[in-house]
Design brief:
The structure holds two protein chains of two kinds. Chain A has eleven helices and twelve strands. Helices cover 33% and strands 23% of the residues of chain A. In chain A, the strands form three sheets. Chain A has a five-stranded antiparallel beta sheet with strand order 4-5-8-6-7. Chain A has a four-stranded antiparallel beta sheet with strand order 9-10-11-12, with helices on both faces. Chain A has a three-stranded parallel beta sheet with strand order 1-3-2, covered by helices on one side. Chain A has three domains: 5-52, Uridine Diphospho-n-acetylenolpyruvylglucosamine Reductase, domain 2; 55-166, 2-Layer Sandwich (Uridine Diphospho-n-acetylenolpyruvylglucosamine Reductase, domain 3); 170-265, Enolase-like, domain 1 (2-Layer Sandwich), CATH 3.30.390.50. Chain A has helices at residues 12-21, 34-39, 75-80, 82-87, 89-96, 101-106, 109-115, 122-128, 142-145, 213-221, 246-265; strands at 5-7, 25-28, 47-50, 60-63, 66-70, 132-135, 139-141, 160-166, 170-177, 184-193, 196-202, 210-211. By secondary structure, chain B is α+β, with helices and mostly antiparallel strands. Among the domains of chain B are: 34-139 and 200-253 and 258-291, Aldehyde Oxidoreductase, domain 3; 141-195 and 294-415, Aldehyde oxidase/xanthine dehydrogenase, molybdopterin binding domain (Aldehyde Oxidoreductase, domain 4, 2-Layer Sandwich), CATH 3.30.365; 482-628, 2-Layer Sandwich (Aldehyde Oxidoreductase, domain 4), CATH 3.30.365. Chain B contains 19 helices and 28 strands. Chain B has a seven-stranded mixed beta sheet with strand order 3-5-1-12-9-10-11, sandwiched between helices. In chain B, strands 7-15-14-13-8 form a five-stranded mixed beta sheet. Chain B is globular. The chains are: A alpha+beta, B alpha+beta. Chain A binds chain B through residues 2, 40-41, 176, 179-181, 229-232, 242-245, 248, 251-252, 254-255, 258, and chain B through 127, 130, 286, 649-651, 690, 694, 702-703, 706-710, 769-771, 774-775, 786-787.
Chain lengths: 267, 787
């Protein structure tokens, strides 16, 4: 790790001003991606701005037809939240599947969403649940937020403050883990809200999280795993590495989608 | 009986220290004034070094020195050695290129050592190491084991075809004759995947030079500190042995990878004199992946011949073994004498012929890793046997039983003389524990849930406790493989045992004390096991090859016998009886036929005060040493049975049951032995299903972290069902065979035989990852391509 300056602002305004002033600063929101990268000397920000003291970014609440999760809420908090478990059990289950206990107690929803790792779980949940990502400057729909691997709509100096999930009728997540890293190799989040059906895929796509529209269409006829029988994602759109080539990933997307629908419909 | 003697499942004495963080590992040590070393490593698999510019790095804060291969050469420091000479079948000696501790003109694998930066802090050393400018001329690299021979890229000029040796063992003509008359021949192409050892403690070293005495001290993570001192002294030329002390304190696992004498510790101890201060280096995990010696990496074509009665009549093997970019300390012996002599397995095979080509590639050196050669041999034999049974339509257990060796001693066609064993007993017991009878029902139940269930056997044998020095010497070993021990009894009766074995997780502090407790009738709490320091223990060969029990404890036994003999003399004076009348039992020296006796501790005191005898008649003191050279290898054997369930939709293999029945002869501590079996199976399952080092075509290690290299986790494994049978080993005084490697040797073929049973064909290689299994299922059942 190279030397860097550490800041711990006590208000969002202060954090934003620090971010604006510092050259090459990074936000620390759990750090489970950032810190290992820094330790390997693959990232060398001049400053870290730790959002851990910002109470306004904490907490989970039900607001009308949505569940609103503060950006600095940990995965463990989401997983064990009664509010989430009651309104969107699939989201709590997804949070429980992230990483390991250490990651879940430090990693945050805001950090995960802002990083948009192509194998992270939250981007799939946000996309499938049609979440709204709120920053210190604006609100961004999930469909507009994720722009390819490690790329988001966030602009310079923008800080995520909360993520709002409209409560679906049915939703579930199924994940096939990379056998070594245990990141998602193919993670599929399905959600049904009214007549809208969304299927979001993480870990598998060549350019990060995406909506599997063919599966969404198939599920519109009937929201059942059978509607997806024999379906696989388009292999030409898939990532390929030593753990899974594109064809296997495309197949796994189909399997995980069926399992997610199965879980959502048998709840 | 003390309750802590041989056979007692005593809890490990050392664990309190380890689990409360009180262990003292090399990295825990800080020497006054110590500096820190960071190595500049090659980013290329193969390149010529045009120049090394250290000027910018030297100007960095805290830098004490930057040393390169030129400095080593100027000091006439020799290269690292390979201590086992192998001759090719044409009689020529193996073709070994030089192995400098810091590159001289060329780098040969990613991670190869180019220079060392020594600085006040580790961070400073690392910062400066990044500023060392090395001008490389990249060369074409050879990576693939099967394609190394005669490849365009030449790793060492000394081996123009990248062939280190073309070795063979066995009888070619007799084997060909057997195949000519065979009723059935089974042929398999087998890859034994390359593994990265991954001990929990990475390697570390501190070198220190005392300008006053001219002596060096090296603290290092070694499984065999005396061998390290010998090599550093006699071959590398750091200092004469009496001026070089090597200490291997607590060591956190090795699995073979800490046997070898590496560049880093060599550089640290040499540089300590150059900079006049202690030099410390601790490997990070990435360095461990890149530069610890790897294991396995064979490509083999194997054939088994059977006659019309399903009797095995011949076995033929051609193996190409990847030795990496340099010959590590014992690398040459692993795919030769530690491999081919085990190709008879547990079977009566009259004719065997094995050819092994050892090849250089631009990859990390490959050397002994838990099992070392024997897992590779067992995998060949047990895959061949299983597949043959399937092809003959015979029950694999019956086919094995039919071909087992049943009379002992048994001379195989490949050197080994098996002393004792009862293979059918282990098979029957394992089948009972594994409930093989109920397998059909379980398979049907799995099928109802859309899952594939399979069962696989592995009937392994290994050769441990290497070995009679005369035998290994005749096969090319540069050292003898005996062990030494010294038993020091203190005046108050407490005991120090100095051993040349080295404990790095095996629990010697407990098992060795149990032996003393058993023989001398004292509590294990009064026994201290001293190891790992060349200034304390006179000499020793270290711990590897499951030899510490069979060889190390046999040496202790010899020394204890001498202590008892001396004790009888002392007791005779003290009890005013004749020596011939003194009996020793249950910790007391007793005059036969009387009630006059002295406790062991009382005799110890008498030995030291020497009041009752004149020093002219009997020397005071109670301290005895012994060297023990085994008369044969030991031959642990057993049967492991694996049962898997495969999810055809994802390719995930779940191990539902794993049964191990092993014959380790006499067991000192069944709890520790069971732990060794568990750990070995975990590593074997790791090799079968998860682990595999992958280099890309340019020689970059793709699996250089846990993000990509999958180690087995507890959750990947079932609760093992472990049983034992016992035929005591006749060639050592304790009847011990050795248990440290059995699981890693036995498990891979058991797992793969189960996987292939489940998928219905043999076309799958290790590691059988979910992707590999899914593809194999697709090939078996194209109709089931979709759910």
């Amino acid at each position: 790790m190279y030397a860097f300056d550490y800041h711990k602002p006590t208000s969002l305004r202060q954090a934003a001003s620090m971010l604006a002033k510092a050259e090459d600063a990074k936000i620390l929101a759990g750090g489970h991606t950032l810190l290992p990268t820094m330790k390997q000397r693959l990232a060398a920000p001049s400053s870290l701005i730790d959002l851990g003291a910002l109470a306004e970014l904490q907490g989970i609440e039900r607001k009308g037809r949505s569940v609103v999760v503060g950006a600095m809420t940990t995965h463990a908090a989401v997983a064990s939240s009664d509010v989430v478990r009651e309104a969107i059990p699939g989201l709590a289950e997804m949070a429980e599947m992230i990483g390991d206990p250490a990651v879940r107690t430090r990693g945050t929803i805001g950090g995960s969403v802002a990083n948009n790792d192509p194998a992270a779980d939250y981007p799939a949940a946000c996309l499938a649940l049609a979440a709204t990502i709120t920053t210190n400057k604006r609100k961004i729909e999930a469909d507009d937020f994720f722009r390819g691997m490690f790329d988001t709509a966030l602009e310079e100096g923008e800080i995520i403050t909360k993520v709002s999930f409209p409560v679906p009728a049915k939703a579930a997540y199924a994940k096939f883990r990379n056998p070594a890293s245990r990141y998602a190799l193919a993670g599929v989040f399905v959600a049904k809200r009214g007549s809208e059906i969304r299927v979001a895929v993480t870990g598998a796509g060549a350019d990060g999280v995406f909506r599997w529209t063919a599966a969404e269409e198939a599920l519109k006829t009937r929201f059942s795993a059978k509607s997806l029988a024999g379906m696989a994602a388009d292999a030409s759109m898939m990532n390929s590495d030593i753990h899974a080539d594109a064809e296997y990933r495309a197949h796994l997307v189909g399997v995980m989608a069926r399992r997610a629908v199965e879980a959502a419909t048998t709840r | 009986m003390t309750g802590t003697g041989i056979g007692a499942p005593v809890r490990r004495k050392e664990d309190q220290r380890f689990i409360t963080g009180q262990g003292r590992y090399t990295d825990d040590l800080a020497r006054p004034g110590q500096t820190h070393a960071a190595f500049v490593r090659s980013p290329h698999a193969h390149a010529r070094i045009r120049s090394i510019d250290t000027s910018a790095a030297s100007a960095m804060p805290g830098v004490v020195a930057i040393l390169t291969g030129d400095d080593l050469a100027a000091d006439k420091i020799g290269g690292l050695i390979c201590g086992w000479m192998i001759h090719s079948k044409d009689g020529t000696p193996m073709k070994a290129g030089p192995h400098p501790a810091l590159a001289q003109g060329k780098v040969r694998y990613v991670g190869d050592h180019v220079a060392v930066v020594i600085a006040e802090t580790f961070a400073q050393a690392r910062d400066a190491a990044e500023r060392v400018e090395v001008d490389y001329e990249p060369l074409a690299a050879v990576v693939d084991t099967a394609k190394a021979k005669g490849a365009g890229a030449v790793v060492h000029d000394e081996a123009p075809d990248n062939l280190v040796y073309e070795w063979h063992l066995g009888e070619k003509d007799a084997t060909e004759a057997a195949f000519a008359r065979a009723a059935h021949v089974t042929r398999l192409d087998i890859t034994n995947n390359r593994l990265i050892p991954n001990p929990i403690e990475t390697r570390a070293a501190i070198g220190e030079y005392d300008a006053g005495t001219g002596g060096y001290t090296l603290w290092t993570t070694s499984q065999n500190p005396h061998v390290a001192r010998l090599v550093l002294s006699a071959f590398i030329g750091i200092a004469p042995e009496h001026q070089l002390r090597v200490i291997a304190p607590d060591v956190g696992g090795g699995f073979g990878s800490k046997i070898f004498i590496y560049a880093e510790e060599t550089v640290c101890v040499w540089a300590a004199k150059k900079v006049g201060r202690p030099v410390k280096w601790t490997s990070d995990r990435t360095e461990a992946f890149l530069a610890d010696a790897h294991g396995r990496d064979h490509v083999t074509h194997a054939e088994l011949a059977v006659d019309e009665n399903a009797k095995i009549i011949g076995l033929r093997v051609h193996t190409t073994a990847n030795l990496g970019a340099y010959l590590s300390t014992f690398s040459s012996s692993v795919p030769t004498y530690l491999y081919a002599p085990l190709l008879s397995g547990q079977y009566d095979i009259p004719a065997i012929y094995a050819e092994v080509d050892g090849v250089y590639t631009n990859t990390a050196p490959v050397d002994a890793y838990r099992g070392a050669g024997r897992p590779e041999a067992t995998y060949v034999v047990e895959r061949l046997v299983e597949v043959t049974a399937r092809q003959l339509g015979m029950d694999p257990a019956k086919f094995r039983k039919k071909n087992y060796i049943k009379r002992f001693p048994h001379q195989t066609p490949v050197i080994m003389n098996y002393d004792v064993g009862d293979y059918a007993a282990s098979l029957e017991k394992a089948m009972e524990i594994a409930d093989v009878k109920g397998f059909g029902k379980r398979k049907r139940e799995s099928a109802k849930r859309g899952k594939l269930r399979g069962l696989g056997y592995s009937s392994y044998i290994e050769a441990c406790g290497i070995a009679p020095s005369q035998a290994v010497g005749s096969l090319g070993a540069g050292v003898g493989l005996w062990e030494s021990a010294e038993v020091r009894v203190n005046p108050t009766g407490s005991i120090e045992v100095l051993t040349g074995s080295h404990s790095h997780g095996q629990g010697h502090e407990t098992t060795f004390a149990q032996l003393v407790s058993d023989r001398l009738g004292v509590s294990i709490d009064t026994v201290n096991i001293v190891h790992g320091d060349t200034d304390k223990v006179q000499f020793g060969m270290g711990t590897y090859g499951s030899r510490s029990g069979a060889v190390g404890m046999s040496a202790i036994t010899k020394a204890i016998d001498k202590v008892i003999a001396k004790g009888k003399k002392v007791a005779a004076y003290a009890l005013e009886a004749s020596e011939g009348d003194i009996e020793f039992a249950d910790g007391r020296f007793k005059v036969a036929g009387t009630d006059r006796s002295l406790a062991f501790g009382e005799v110890a005191l008498q030995a030291y005060v020497a009041h009752k005898f004149s020093g002219q008649d009997l020397e005071p003191g109670l301290k005895e040493g012994a060297f023990y050279d085994p008369t044969n290898f030991t031959f642990p054997a057993g049967v492991h049975i694996c049962e898997v369930e495969i999810d055809p939709d994802t390719g995930i293999t779940k191990i539902e049951r794993f049964t191990a029945v092993d014959d380790f002869g006499v067991v000192i501590n069944p709890m520790i032995v069971e732990g060794q079996v568990h750990g070995g199976i975990a590593q074997g399952v790791g090799q079968a299903l998860m682990e595999g080092a992958i280099y890309d075509e340019s020689g970059q290690l793709v699996t250089a972290s846990y993000q990509d290299y999958q180690m087995p986790r507890a959750g990947d494994l079932p609760s093992f069902q472990v049983g034992m049978t016992s035929t005591p080993c006749p060639s050592n005084p304790l009847g011990i065979k050795g248990c440290g490697e059995a699981g890693a040797i036995a498990a891979p073929p058991a797992v793969i035989n189960a996987v292939t049973d489940a998928i219905g064909h043999e076309e799958i290689a290790m590691p059988a990852t979910p992707q590999a299994v899914w593809r194999a299922v697709q090939r078996a059942r194209p109709a089931m391509a979709a759910e």
